[in-house]
Write a structure and sequence with these properties.
The chain is an alpha+beta fold and 483 residues long. It is built from 17 helices and 17 strands. The termini are far apart.
């Protein structure tokens, strides 16, 4: 009925709790109310402006007890000139040309701004323009909530600014399968996008960029590490035959720098768009006593899918199969603790003749993805028996993970040219050859194992692929031998 509905409407919109929220509403309020009455309200109908809002209530003398009324209110014109301020009337009445008090809560001054500090400053500035006899208001609105957490070293406003800066980049990765993303407590992804699948299996991987972040922080360059984490996690699920669905990121630091975080997440978003993957959500954490000033950590989780009967697990590998190697773009995301120790006394802008570029730039070269190359082989009907992503542990730890019992892999080190950065690390650090192949990828980021005929076809389709080894019978169990 119309009567009760109007009463409820007026009651709620007379409260300061509503007056502080209303200026942030981006949706059509009437449409929201109609949707409520018609039972069709959904989250996408309620949209909000970015930023913060603060309300200061101007009360009459005696409030919250018996109040005096009839006092003239002045200064509203001046208050209205404060940027992004709205003045809600509650206990007021007109008497000719004059505006008088008529209740306890007389006016509510609401201001909006990109951050809470500015919103509060505007609200208090506007409130200071208004005068009436006995007027009083609280002068600590938002003070305790902001200062206590900030005193502990955590800046909520900086976190909000970081989210605002990254929002467009994140949303640019969304597909129709994303039902809820940034801003939601949890991302929602519609698996009906896999309706073409017969027996889909989800594949997930979590990893971090490691101490490569220290070089990024030292150089103040944050545009590449987002690519690193996305492509690292992608390759980890790719070797089991999976295609990417969505990605989640986690950025932690001692002090939250919105520009830094936004640059990192924009890099994640760019990488996700490149591989057709949604950046479904993530988290930023400010932990002042856990991380040193300027340091940060970057972790990600990739979720993909594969048909159950197309999982690549190496079970079909037999003696006589061929190992192909696809080049890496550099160190990728492993071995940086050793690399930083080797170059501890070298400025990052040093240009070694064999590198031809500043050392820091070479070390920040992003991790390479291999989705396109693997899809090329699959589209050609080539059966990939096994794949190994050469990350931490190098060749000795990663290749045996895909080998069945009774076989080993022999790699021919002369089959590919090791990039100069690895030889430079080895020479300056006096690192043994075997340890180099255990720590670094040495220029090979992905190893594929195929039958001989398929390997020949693969090399024709992927000119950069190199035949780097073969599968042998072994009674000693899965292992890698360097020749």
């Amino acid at each position: 009925p119309e009567g009760p509905f109007v009463l409820e409407f007026n009651c709620r919109f007379g409260d300061p709790e509503t007056q502080v929220l209303l200026p942030l509403l981006d949706s059509d309020l009437l449409e929201i109310l109609l949707a409520c009455t018609e039972g069709r309200l959904t989250p996408d109908l309620v949209r909000w402006h970015e930023g913060a809002s603060a309300t200061v209530v101007l009360a009459a003398e005696g409030y919250p007890g018996a109040v005096r009324t009839g006092d003239e209110i002045v200064g509203l014109v001046e208050a209205a000139q404060v940027p992004d301020c709205v003045i809600f009337h509650a206990g007021t009445r007109h008497e000719g040309e004059r505006l008088l008090t008529s209740g306890g809560r007389v006016l509510a001054v609401t201001a909006t701004a990109p951050d809470l500090d500015t919103a509060l400053e505007r609200a208090y500035r506007a409130a200071g323009c208004i005068r009436f006899a006995g007027m009083h208001y609280r002068r600590d609105i938002g003070l305790e909530a902001r200062s206590a957490y900030r005193a502990a070293g955590v800046n909520i406003d900086a976190g909000n600014e970081a989210v605002a800066r990254m929002r467009d980049a994140v949303r640019s990765t969304y597909t129709p399968a994303v039902l809820a993303g940034i801003g939601a407590f949890g991302g929602l992804f519609d698996l009906r996008s896999l309706d073409r699948a017969r027996h889909p299996v989800l594949v997930a991987s979590t990893d971090g960029v490691g101490t490569k972040t220290l070089i990024a922080a030292a150089l103040g360059r944050y545009d590449t590490v987002g690519h690193d984490i996305v492509y690292h996690c992608l390759n980890d699920i790719l070797v089991q035959g999976a295609r990417p669905l969505f990605f989640l990121d986690y950025v932690a630091s001692g002090r939250l720098d919105p520009k830094q975080v936004a640059a990192i997440v924009r890099g994640c978003a760019e990488a996700c768009r490149e591989i057709g993957c949604a950046l479904l959500g993530g988290e930023t954490a400010e932990m002042p006593q856990v991380y040193h000033e300027g340091a940060f950590d970057l972790v990600g989780t990739m979720v993909g899918w594969v048909e159950k009967d197309e999982i690549v697990d190496g079970h079909g590998i037999v003696p006589g199969d061929v190992c192909l190697g696809l080049p890496s773009s550099g160190l990728h995301t492993n071995g940086y603790s050793l690399a930083r120790r080797v170059f501890a006394d070298v400025p990052w802008d040093t240009v070694f003749p064999e590198l031809g570029r500043p050392l820091g730039e070479v070390l920040l070269t992003p991790h390479r993805p291999y989705l396109r190359e693997v899809e090329t082989l699959r589209s050609a009907g080539i059966r990939i028996k096994g794949m190994a992503h050469i990350t931490g542990g190098g060749f000795f730890e990663n290749i045996p993970r895909i080998l069945p019992g009774g076989v080993a892999v022999e790699l021919e080190r002369a089959a590919w040219e090791v990039p100069p950065i690895f030889r430079l690390i080895q020479a300056r650090g006096r690192v043994r050859e075997e340890e180099m192949y255990r720590v670094f990828n040495m220029g090979i980021g992905l190893v594929l194992i195929l039958g001989r005929d398929d390997a020949e076809r693969a090399c024709r389709l992927l000119p950069e692929a190199r035949t780097i080894g073969r599968v042998l019978r072994s009674d000693a169990g899965p292992q890698v031998r360097l020749h």
